[in-house]
Amino acid sequence: MSEPITGIVGYPVTPFVPDDPSTVNVEVLHQLIDRMIDAGVDAIAPLGSTGESAYLDHDEWVMVATESIRNVAARVPTVVGVSDVTTAGAVERARVAESLGATALMATPVSYWPLTEEEVRVHFTAIAAAVTVPLMAYNNPATTGIDMSPEFLVRLVAAVPNITMVKESSGDIGRMRRLRELSEGSLPYFNGRNPLALQAFDAGAAGWCTAAACLVPHRVVAFHRAVVAGDAACATECFAQMEPLLELIVSRGLPTTVKSGLRSIGIDAGDPRRPLLPLGAAEAARLAGLIAACER
């Protein structure tokens, strides 16, 4: 990777054909990726939790990885999620993503059984050893049940050369400040908790990993550009416009809310895959209103 990844990392949902959640809609996947890149996002990250990677079979996962990387066409970096419940599965996904041309990989520990720190360390070390591209270690205890402390993450990055980035989604801004302190500012970390984006950049985050770029890409990019320009007033105002939307999309799960929001702006990405269910009419209407408010 010639340049470090920074800025807005946009997370596309995995679209399914309307009324047929068993079939991936490649055309809409391309549309979502193009829309985010055209708006100015700095990287694309398919097959995260937003992309329902846990609900895809192997062939579907390979298809989405292939089509995403092909369609991005190196216009921006592509960070492919390779998480799997087994180490062997994550290693296989990592090797496939690298062979397809992924710029970097992202993984979170996914487990039925609670994992010790040593088990998490061995898991990440095996993934990193299987590839040469950089790996982002993703901490999301709300969905995985496994919480990697800042101390553990800094030790992990120091011990494994191509684990070079951290995505922190615990919802604790103090974790990000601690990552900066422990690494003496050398470790790039990304905010993965949407409502904390403004605070995260203030705490030194290298970027924001967000599914909101699917819905309001121009607003997300405008906010980040204000941050980079040092225009605190503009950044604060822009974030305040987005904040109610950000709170809502995380309240019911990103695949569910983002797909409903996309439908409200004329992009039908289908319904989320069961057991996830679409938003009800009242919630969908509220979400549509918040998207419209962001674009005014």
From TrEMBL:
<dbReference type="GO" id="GO:0008747">
    <property type="term" value="F:N-acetylneuraminate lyase activity"/>
</dbReference>
<protein>
    <submittedName>
        <fullName>Dihydrodipicolinate synthase family protein</fullName>
    </submittedName>
</protein>
<dbReference type="InterPro" id="IPR002220">
    <property type="entry name" value="DapA-like"/>
</dbReference>
<feature type="active site" description="Proton donor/acceptor">
    <location>
        <position position="138"/>
    </location>
</feature>
<feature type="binding site">
    <location>
        <position position="50"/>
    </location>
    <ligand>
        <name>pyruvate</name>
    </ligand>
</feature>
<dbReference type="Pfam" id="PF00701">
    <property type="entry name" value="DHDPS"/>
</dbReference>
<dbReference type="GO" id="GO:0005829">
    <property type="term" value="C:cytosol"/>
</dbReference>
<feature type="active site" description="Schiff-base intermediate with substrate">
    <location>
        <position position="167"/>
    </location>
</feature>
<keyword id="KW-0456">Lyase</keyword>
<dbReference type="GO" id="GO:0019262">
    <property type="term" value="P:N-acetylneuraminate catabolic process"/>
</dbReference>
<comment type="similarity">
    <text>Belongs to the DapA family.</text>
</comment>
<dbReference type="InterPro" id="IPR013785">
    <property type="entry name" value="Aldolase_TIM"/>
</dbReference>
